[in-house]
Design goal:
Elements lengths: L1 H26 L5 H10 L13 H47 L3 H5 L14 H4 L2 E13 L5 E12 L6 E12 L4 E4 L8
Antiparallel strand pairs: 1-2, 2-3, 3-4
C-alpha cells in the first residue's frame, strides 16, 4: 500500500510540473525567462502578466497533493493509535494474568490461555491449589513489528504449601492478539509448577 501511495504522489508531482511548465510557456518564460519577461511587458493585449496566478490545473494538482498528504498522515496516525491501544490492552491483560498467578487463582489464569490442539487438557487444579507464587519478574520482552505477538521471559519463584521449599522456574510466555475477539491469548499455557 505504501508503494502505491508513493507512486501516486510522484504522479501528482509530475502533473504539477507539467502544469507549471505550461504556465511558464503562457508567460513566455522558458530557459531564457528574462526575454520572456520583456515579451510579456511589451505585449499590451496579452492576458499573461507579471504576478499572474497559476493556472487552474496547477492549483488542482497542488490541492490534490496536499489532500493526499493529509490522508497519508491520517492513515499513519490511525495505525499508530491502534497499535498503541493494542499494546495498552496487552499491558492490562498481562497484569491481570500476573495477579491471577500471584493470588493462586489458577482457573482464572487458565482463561487467558488458548488451547492449541484437540488433545490439550486443562491443568491439574488440585495440584495447583497448593502452589504459592512469591515472585514474578520480567527478564526479557520482545514484540513483533506489527505488535500482534509478544514473547515474555519471566522468572517465577514459588513454593508448594506442603514442602515450603522455594523453587525458581523460567516461564517462556508466547502471547498473540486475536483481531476478531480483540483480546490477547497466552499460547504457551500455564507455568510448569513441579
Amino acid at each position: 500500500m505504501f508503494h502505491s501511495i508513493v507512486a501516486l504522489v510522484k504522479g501528482l508531482d509530475r502533473y504539477q510540473n507539467i502544469a507549471h511548465q505550461s504556465y511558464q510557456a503562457q508567460l513566455g518564460w522558458g530557459k531564457n525567462w528574462g526575454k520572456g519577461l520583456q515579451k510579456v511587458k511589451r505585449t499590451a493585449g496579452s492576458q499573461a502578466h507579471l504576478g499572474q496566478r497559476p493556472t487552474t490545473c496547477m492549483r488542482e494538482a497542488s490541492m490534490a497533493k496536499y489532500i493526499l498528504y493529509l490522508c497519508v498522515l491520517l492513515l499513519v496516525g490511525c495505525a499508530t493509535f491502534e497499535a498503541s491501544q493494542r499494546m495498552e490492552l496487552f499491558d492490562d491483560t498481562s497484569l491481570a494474568y500476573e495477579k491471577a498467578l500471584r493470588f493462586g487463582d489458577y482457573r482464572v489464569a487458565n482463561k487467558f490461555t488458548r488451547k492449541e490442539g484437540a488433545g490439550q487438557q486443562d491443568p491439574d487444579f488440585n495440584h495447583l491449589k497448593n502452589i504459592r507464587v512469591t515472585s514474578y519478574e520480567l527478564l526479557e520482552s520482545t514484540s513483533s513489528p506489527d505488535n500482534l505477538k509478544v514473547e515474555l521471559t519471566m522468572e517465577i519463584r514459588y513454593f508448594h504449601a506442603d514442602y515450603l521449599v522455594v523453587k525458581t522456574l523460567i516461564d517462556e510466555q508466547r502471547w498473540e492478539y486475536d483481531a476478531t475477539e480483540k483480546r490477547w491469548h497466552l499460547h504457551s499455557g500455564l507455568p510448569d509448577f513441579k
